[in-house]
Amino acid sequence: MKAVTVPFFISHQGCPHTCIFCDQRTVSGAPGSLPGNAEIVAKIAAWRLSAGGTPLEAAFFGGTFSALPIEVREQLLAPLQPLLASGEITSVRISTRPDHIDADTVEWLAERGVRTIELGVQSMDDAVLDSAGRGHDAASSEAAIRCVKAHGLSVGAQLMSGLPGDTPSKALRSLERVIAAGADFVRIYPVVVLAGTELARRFAAGEYCPPGIEQGVRLCKVLLHAAMQGGVPVVRIGLQADRGLNADSVLAGCLHPAFGQLVRSELYFDMLCRLTSGRAGAAPLSIRCHPSRISDCIGQGRVNLERLRQQGVSASVRPDASLLREEVVVDLFGRCIKGNVISDLYFNINEV
Ligand code: SF4
User: Fold this and answer.
1) For 301-337, what is each residue's pLDDT tens digit?
2) Does the CB atom of residue 25 touch ligand 1 within 6 A?
3) Any idea what the Cα angle at residue 96 is, between residues 95 and 100, rounded to 5°?
4) Can you name the CATH fold of 267-351?
């Protein structure tokens, strides 16, 4: 059973850098505060009540956990030890920078219940990393992924597409490299330009312009498809729009409350187009997909069905639990035409 994550945000704590896109200092005005022992225990107790019998995982996001002084790390993980021993939580997750991961650190974390490490990789192109002020190179990300894997922990890679100097092909190559290195899952964050950052200064000076939502959707669709082909889950696409991000703080880029859904429904729309090609003017078509993919097939506000209608194809979508999540079927005059989003779609990254 998938664990419910109890998040603790330790904004910018432990971070020795200021990446050009990062707003942590701007938003908080100072390094964020750390949760105290009692706060950690109380929050987990509250979440346990609402989670019912679902296992819980404690997670420290938003800082560079493994760069914190060791006594601070001890202080954060200490209240979790009795909860791990009693089974009240089953695991701990942290996020950190790739250049603050080595074998000793991973062993130390694993001994204290950490089972998942998320790495802020952003790009696997050294020129893009350098321009973004990351302070580490692609080789250190590769080494960190391999190191976490070698110790039997789960490792996630956070990628940011659209940074200065990035291109769709570099973004795809970055994804392919983290998958090849062994990433168990990825998060894809197209760039959002936040007020007060160096990126905002470059944007205002006309030195940089991030991809907009349409272009971001096209790129992320190809990245999602490549991850699906690689068998690696994409657990998040796009920044969560509820974390202090608003018209004042966001100057440009891909911020949409349901960006990930836009991307997934675009991918399924391509499948629908392929399956219904040449059917314009035919009787209304019945389309089936896995129940979890209904909204991806229909699209937000039924946009996919409306786009098909504009192509002369009238269709309705219904769930079919016997299908795989990536399968779509069109029932046509007693015949079934089946498509598979993973194996039957092809994209040229140079056309994004
Ligand atoms: S390493 Fe992370 S927390 Fe630190 S400045 Fe960069 S993005 Fe922000």
Assistant:
1) 999 999 999 999 999 999 999 999 999 999 987 889 9
2) no
3) 150
4) Glutaredoxin (3.40.30)
Give mean pLDDT, residues 211-238: 97
What gap in Å lies between CA 197 and CA 94, rounded to an integer?
25
Mutational test site, ligand 1, from 17, 97, 189, max ligand atoms within 8 Å of CB: 17
Report CA(225)–ligand 1 centroid distance (Å): 28
pLDDT digit string, tens, across residues 104-160 = 999 999 999 999 999 999 999 999 999 999 999 999 999 999 999 999 999 999 999
Q: Order of strands across the sheet with 4-9?
A: 4-9, 56-61, 91-96, 114-122, 154-161, 185-190, 234-237
Q: Are 133 and 94 in contact (CB under 8 A)?
A: no
Q: Which of 7-16, 58-67, 128-137, 325-334 has the lowest mean pLDDT?
A: 7-16
Say which CATH topology domain 4-257 has.
TIM Barrel (3.20.20)
Smallest CA separation from ligand 1 atom 3, residue? 12
Ligand 1 neighbourhood includes 17 CB (under 6 angstroms): yes
Q: For residue 134, report the distance from its CA to the centre of ligand 1, in Å.
A: 8
Angstrom CA distances, 65 to 101, 114, 154, 332, stand at 10, 11, 16, 55
State the average pLDDT over residues 87-116.
Answer: 97
> Which residue, 254, 264, 241, 244, is CA-closest to 191?
254
Ligand 1 atom nearest residue 122's Cα = 7
Pocket flag, ligand 1, residue 24 (CB < 6 Å): yes
159: Cβ below 6 Å to ligand 1? Answer: no
Mean of all residue pLDDT scores within the chain: 93
* Domain boundary assignment for the chain: 4-257, 267-351
| Predicted local distance difference test score (pLDDT) of residue 26 | 43
Say whether pLDDT at 25 is over 70: no
Neighbours of 158 (CB within 10 A): 19
CA nearest ligand 1 atom 4, residue: 15
What single letter denotes the amino acid at residue 185?
Answer: F
